[in-house]
Amino acid sequence: MTGLDLDACIEQLYQKRLLAESLLKEICEKTKELLLKESNVVHIKAPVTVIGDIHGQFYDLLEIFKIGGYCPHTNYLFLGDYVDRGLSSVETISLLTCLKLRYPDRVQLVRGNHESRAVTQTYGFYTECIRKYGSASVWTYFTNMFDFLTLSVVIDDSIFCVHGGLSPSIKFIDQIKVLDRFREIPHEGPMADLVWSDPDPDKEEFAMSARGAGYTFGSQVVKKFLHINGMSHILRAHQLCMEGYQVLYDDQLSTVWSAPNYCYRCGNLASVLEVGEQGQRFFNVFDAAPESDRLPPPGSQLGNNKDIVQVQYFL
């Protein structure tokens, strides 16, 4: 990392200050080099703290680190949807990318459906980059880097972690390993299903999704997938949970949601999921960061975004 002081970058972001465009360009290029070496299925060991959707709620991300511990003292697995919706997507993805580069074995970043050129042009990240940097260059650096993010993580060979859910095209986890992930998320197919699909407690099999992408899947799908792959649990994000999390199918699947008071108006709680060395799971539930923590320092560019993105629950 010659010439790139990641500790200084991380400290600047913790102080709620944007990084220079030239720095972000270098950071994204180096992150692509790092992610290129990762499989589509990354295997890690517990203990690890798992984080669901953040959606540009930077102050709540800082609250997560206060609750769960700062890197590298805590291992983190982030399940995607780092950008869009919230007012500080740039700061959020900048910090997470720097932490991944600085502590590559202690920070895992999974791709969500919002880590996409098409989606970020509609739901806030593209507009925010232009507002804060005067051009779309930073958006281009990050969206090119998104193409390199892994699709899934397996904890202790027993917990399958993904942003969205399962696919009718994927029976074996090994099938994920051969997907070409280094591209924009397609409109359909197994890669799209992994980031777009949702469990449906009223179903047993696969069904069409109201999102217009991916599928809904039921209890029998989960049971078969876990049995075939020798797993005990599926862990995912992607769906707003008013209580911060949801557990389905006789404790075979969990949803973790980490954006409290989503879009600054939903009033929901959030959680992080702490997975212990013996496989035990504990949802640490929290509320939105205090208003006093949301004030940017004098002269900071943070918080200049005055537009609140309209809530659309299907994304």
From TrEMBL:
Transmembrane segments: none annotated. InterPro entries: Calcineurin-like_PHP, Metallo-depent_PP-like, PPA2-like, Ser/Thr-sp_prot-phosphatase. GO terms for cellular component: mitochondrial outer membrane. GO terms for molecular function: metal ion binding; protein serine/threonine phosphatase activity. Residues 110-115 form the Serine/threonine specific protein phosphatases domain. It catalyses: O-phospho-L-threonyl-[protein] + H2O = L-threonyl-[protein] + phosphate. GO terms for biological process: glycogen metabolic process; negative regulation of mitophagy. Its EC number is 3.1.3.16. CDD domains: MPP_PP2A_PP4_PP6. It comes from the Eukaryota. It is an enzyme of class 3 (hydrolase). It holds the Pfam family Metallophos. Belongs to the PPP phosphatase family. This is Serine/threonine-protein phosphatase. It comes from Bifiguratus adelaidae.
